[in-house]
Structures are given as structure tokens and as C-alpha cells.
Amino acid sequence: MNSSEVSSSISENTTSVSSGPLLWYQYEVCKDITYGFVFYYAVKVLNMAVGFPANVMVIWQMTKKKADSTTSDIFISNLALLDAFFGMVTPIELLNRLLLNNSRIWYLQRFAYGVKDATPLFLTCICLDRYVAVVHPIIFTRIRDNKIRVVVSMVVWALTLAYSLVKSFMGVDSVSEVFSGLILTAFSTMVFCNISIIWVLRRSVIGKEEMHPMKRKAFKMVLLILTIIVILYLPPVALMPFAKYYSLRDFRCLISLIVFSIMDLSCSIEPLLYIAKTEKLSFCTCCQKPNRT
After folding, report:
1. What is the number of other CB atoms lying within 10 angstroms of the CB of residue 216?
2. What's the rounded Cα separation, in Å, for the pair 254 and 17?
3. Residue partners of 86: CB distance under 8 A and separation at least 6
4. Cα radius of gyration rounded to whole Å, the chain
5. DSSP per residue, 26-86
6. Helices (H), the chain
7. Per-residue pLDDT tens digits of the chain, which is 293 residues long
């Protein structure tokens, strides 16, 4: 079991529900513990109402961003594009999950969840890019050319599409082990990169009275990103290896739904974080102009 789409997998392997529209809590076995599905649908609505427009705004900002662009922008825009697609499919999924139960639409849903499963790859690319910039600045100056990042993005897109198509047509179980390895590797890499950046920034101010304002800003941002990564991606990393020890009822109706719904919150949290940072920088720039004059 490998994404927030766990409940769709249950629908494929459970015969307790008759054909036709499903129960809102999907399965008879879940009727006594429905709060897992309440949280699941709440996250869906949040991603549709907040995450989708926020990711579209990030993409729009990237298209008009020129003077102050960074090397990570190409990864950020691709990540926003994947999350926007996932949010765009949400109304179709809710309609199918609650009313239609159409087998053809399930293929689209599984493809969308495959796309969401692979989004940590672009987030990992962002963390690696910043890691090299801070920890290995000399190497970074040699690889500033965005052509390298375009090639890396194309490779990630190829892996994402291949993974999503396999998941769509062959089912969730076909990519279960792949997802486990992907999320564990991505989580470990992101945590290592951000801790390394924090360590370097802290060491740069040893013996000094205070940290440079720019370094302080970077330190706070990386610390915030690390916190978000741990909150969003630690639950699946920590809990899913022990899935076989849970009862079928608890795993299907509660644990998997909540764990992967938390991971899906990245669709809303990540673009909002980027927008907040961008707006803050724009505000600070406007405030500084009168002083410079």
C-alpha cells in the first residue's frame, strides 16, 4: 500500500460493497470508525480550494520571474505543476468515489495518485540544489547552467510518468515496493541536505556576535522547510513498514487514510510557503526603496 489512494485499492480488493455508488465511508467494515474518511475528505477539499489555486499562482509567478530567479526555480515550477494537476483531478475523484464508482475513472485516479507519489523527487532536487549551493559553493559555481537542471527535470518526469502509468493499469500493489524505496530515499536525502545546510550556516557565525541578516533569513527558511518535511513525510516512512502488524480494519479505515492525507497536505503547504516568502521579499523591497532614495 503506497499512497493516499489506499482506499481505492481497498475498493479493488474488497467485495463487502455492492456494485454501484459506494458508501461515503467506502466499506461496511469502516462504519464504526469513519473519522479517518472525514479527515481524508477534508484534506481533499482543502487541496482543491487552496492547493490548486496556490500552485497555479506559483506557476504564474515563475513565468514572470526574471531578475531574481534562482537555480531551484525550474524544480519549484515542476513541483507546482504536478501538485496543480493532482488538485485539478480532485473534483472528478470525489464525484466518482461518492457517486459514480466508474471503473474507467479509477484509472485516472490511480494515475493522479502515482503523480502525487513521485512529487518528493522534485522536492529532493530542490533540497540537493540548495545543499550544493551552501555546502559546496565552488562546485555550485561550475554547475549553475540551467541546462543541467532541465535534463534532471526531464529524467524525473520520465520516471514519474512511467511509475504513474504502471500504477494506473496494473494496480496499486504493482508499485508498492517502489514507493517504499522512493519515499524512504527522498526523505533521508531531504533531511540530510537540510541538516547539513543548517550546520554550515551555524558554523559560519561561530565566534561572531550575530549572524548576517541574509544568512539568518536562509537559516530560518531551511529550518522551517526541514520541519515541514518531517511533519509531512515522517508518518509514512515511520508507519508503513509496520503495515502487516496492523489489523486490516484499522489499517484500511484509519491509519493509512490519515498518514497519506497528511502527506497530501504538501499540495497546499508548499505553495503557500513559497508565496508567503515571495510576498514578504516584495514587501521588504518596497520598504527599502524610500531609504535608498
Report:
1. 13
2. 18
3. 47, 112, 115, 116, 119, 264, 267
4. 21
5. BSGGGTT-THHHHHHHHHHHHIIIIIHHHHHHHHHHHHH--TT--TTHHHHHHHHHHHHHH
6. 6-13, 35-46, 52-64, 73-95, 103-135, 137-142, 146-170, 176-203, 213-239, 248-250, 256-264, 266-292
7. 444 444 444 444 333 344 444 567 777 777 777 888 888 889 999 999 999 999 999 999 888 876 556 778 889 899 999 999 998 888 888 888 878 778 888 899 899 999 998 999 998 998 898 888 888 888 888 887 788 889 999 999 999 999 999 999 988 778 878 888 888 898 899 999 889 988 888 776 665 656 666 667 677 777 778 888 888 888 877 776 676 777 777 787 888 888 888 888 889 988 888 888 776 555 444 444 444 43
**264, 9 contact by CB (below 8 A):** no
Q: Is 220 left (phi over 0), alpha (psi -120 to 50) or beta?
A: alpha
Q: How far is CA 67 from the centre of its chain?
A: 27
- Which residues, at least 6 apart from 228, have a Cβ–Cβ distance to it below 8 Å? 266, 269, 270, 273
* Cell matching residue 177: 515496493
> Integer distance in angstroms from the first to the last C-alpha of the chain?
60
What's the whole-model pTM score?
0.80
The total number of residues shown for the chain amounts to 293
- Closest by CA position to 79, among listed 103, 58, 94: 58
